[in-house]
């Protein structure tokens, strides 16, 4: 049986999709030059952060089919690690980034080993428990995290001794990080690891009978996702220059769930499109502050009703329509 989510790899999409990715990346490169307005650049930075987070989240939800509700834990862990190491010990951005991503893998193993022993439904509840614990630690361990007073005074972002104080420079840094996250997800999808994750997701019993360890592959995907999320958290600490317990809020999980399920699980282009749509749209709706949430909810409702299988299904339909139009009309023989 062919999984409908793998349909974009079929003919037509294989030729068109790389061109669309290149066009999108080229547009992202020139965006700060075309719209040199701080508000727009700041919104684009936030959108790219959510692109990276959603792509990382989809590695767990889409690739292995495990509904993790503790993704903000890794994001917040990266933010707090950056704030603590930079403000109290003077660590550089690169060192903080590498250490935080490595430590996030260890944290993912500590959470994943007991959680993946549960059924997939209980896994969601178990990871939710870890998210609540992390939130309580951030709020109540005042000596380490600052508690409700937050951690302030994160130094300006610098890479290789060059301070990236302008929004444009920070935009290009998070653009590189988001491209890296997309590249990791793309490489996983096209590798033997991706095939193994798909096998574990679709039929773990059969995968185990073929010599694959479902728990080991799930932990691998969980660790990669945690490392990518922690990296975004590190950038967020420098970008915001303050880290608060709200960085671990469950609203991040809600937003990521919307992006992944509306985009289409295990669909890279769908998740990226949904992350951009549902990050930029609320910012645009601030022009009508009173009706912002109403319009946002209506847009979300319309998308769910009209394309319940996510944006990926809409992309597939558009691809089929395009191929029909490009196919030559058969000549009738007289």
UniProtKB/TrEMBL annotation:
Record organism: Actinomadura viridis
Coiled coil: none
Descriptive protein name: Branched-chain amino acid transport system permease protein
Recorded superkingdom: Bacteria
Key words of the record: Cell membrane, Membrane, Transmembrane, Transmembrane helix
Gene Ontology terms for molecular function: branched-chain amino acid transmembrane transporter activity
Pfam families noted in UniProt: BPD_transp_2 (PF02653)
Subcellular location: Cell membrane
One cellular-component annotation, GO: plasma membrane
Lineage start: Bacteria, Bacillati, Actinomycetota, Actinomycetes, Streptosporangiales
Membrane topology: Multi-pass membrane protein
Transmembrane spans: 12-31, 37-57, 64-85, 91-111, 118-138, 169-189, 219-239, 251-281, 293-311
Main localization of the protein described in the UniProt heading: membrane
